[in-house]
Design a protein that fits this description.
- This protein is of the alpha/beta class and 314 residues long.
- It has 2 domains: 163 residues, Rossmann fold; 139 residues, Rossmann fold (3-Layer(aba) Sandwich), CATH 3.40.50.2020.
- It is built from 8 helices and 15 strands.
- The strands form 3 sheets. The protein has a 7-stranded mixed beta sheet with strand order 11-10-9-12-13-14-15, sandwiched between helices. A 6-stranded parallel beta sheet has the order 2-1-5-6-7-8, sandwiched between helices.
Length: 314
């Protein structure tokens, strides 16, 4: 198609630079993003993008509401600058966990996000490891929900040869993802049976599957406050688990999450740089998503399939 132009928001400029360098002939566009004195955001594109295939890269860090508004204004600015096609590249997408009504008078936030991205003139969305793969149904524009399995699987296969993991889901809702990794590793599987007794509070009753005397790999899509995932690890230890590892695509790490993990029974947390952090502890092993996103951008620009990179939890 037309020339690839990369436009970066402020949330992860380093990732945008790396992606641009991995795509031959692409250009990282000069832009200006300013916070006015009252907190409003202003954006300007400082070079022509007329007719170009524009990919806007933005994730959601410690101030997701501001990051979202910045993204929407940036998308409209790019549309007004006569871009040929606009793709929002959102490794971690706002509202991913709010994918259904959880009770009376509650929102379906991912649907709202889908609608406002379309209103802001995005033609397509690229994201990864949605909390629920079924959330793609909320979008009236094309969306690619990428799997990060190809990033992690090679190192997990080698580690599994040594550790002989049981793949563990932290709850019944994550069983589909755990089964996917268990099938790749040809490993046993288990999950935590929880009872939720209040909002954001749950109790682990027991584990379904044998983890006593076994090394375990806990698989989840994200770690936010780390409270639940650390509780799972400590309960696993109490019932005889040996070494405990964790795989989570999105490391949100709100509040004192890093400290909780540092003091936990986890040996290692495997994650990605879908959310930007500085100087994480040695318990974290970070793999970059830059090559995965670069390959998807190239294929989309060439109107080629990205099916092998899209997440299918079967």
């Amino acid at each position: 198609m037309s020339e690839i132009a990369i436009v970066s928001g402020r949330t992860h400029y380093e990732l945008s630079e790396r992606i641009s360098k991995l795509i031959p002939g692409s250009k990282l566009i000069e832009r200006e993003i300013i916070d006015f004195a009252n907190g409003e955001i202003f954006t300007r594109i400082n070079e022509t993008i007329r007719g170009k295939d524009v990919f806007v890269i933005q994730t959601f860090n410690s101030d997701p509401n501001k990051d979202l508004v910045e993204l929407l204004i940036l998308l409209q600015t790019i549309w007004l600058a006569s871009a040929g096609r606009i793709t929002a590249v959102l490794p971690y997408i706002y509202g991913s966990r709010q994918d259904r009504k959880t009770g009376p008078r509650t929102p379906i936030t991912i649907k709202l996000i889908a609608d406002i991205l379309k209103a802001a003139k995005a033609n397509r969305v690229i994201t990864m490891s949605l909390h629920s793969p079924h959330s793609t149904a909320a979008f009236d524009i094309n969306i690619d929900n990428l799997s990060t399995a190809k990033i992690f699987v090679p190192k997990l296969i080698e580690l599994h040869k040594e550790k002989n993991f049981v793949v563990v889901s932290p709850d019944a809702g994550g069983l589909q993802k755990a089964r996917y990794y268990a099938s790749i590793l040809n490993s046993d599987i288990a999950f935590a049976d929880k009872r939720r007794f209040a909002k954001n509070k749950s109790e682990i009753l027991n584990f379904v599957g044998d983890i006593n005397g076994r090394n375990c790999l806990v698989v989840d899509d994200m770690i936010d406050t780390a409270g639940s995932i650390v509780d799972v690890a400590e309960k696993m230890k109490s019932v005889g688990a040996l070494e405990i590892y964790c795989l989570a695509t999105h490391l949100i790490l709100s509040g004192n999450a890093e400290e909780r993990i540092a003091n936990s029974s986890f040996v290692k947390i495997f994650g990605t740089d879908s959310i930007h952090h500085e100087n994480l502890s040695k318990k974290f092993e970070i793999s970059s998503i830059d090559s995965l996103l670069a390959n998807v951008i190239i294929n989309i620009n060439n109107d080629e399939s990205v099916m092998e990179l899209v997440e299918h939890r079967t």
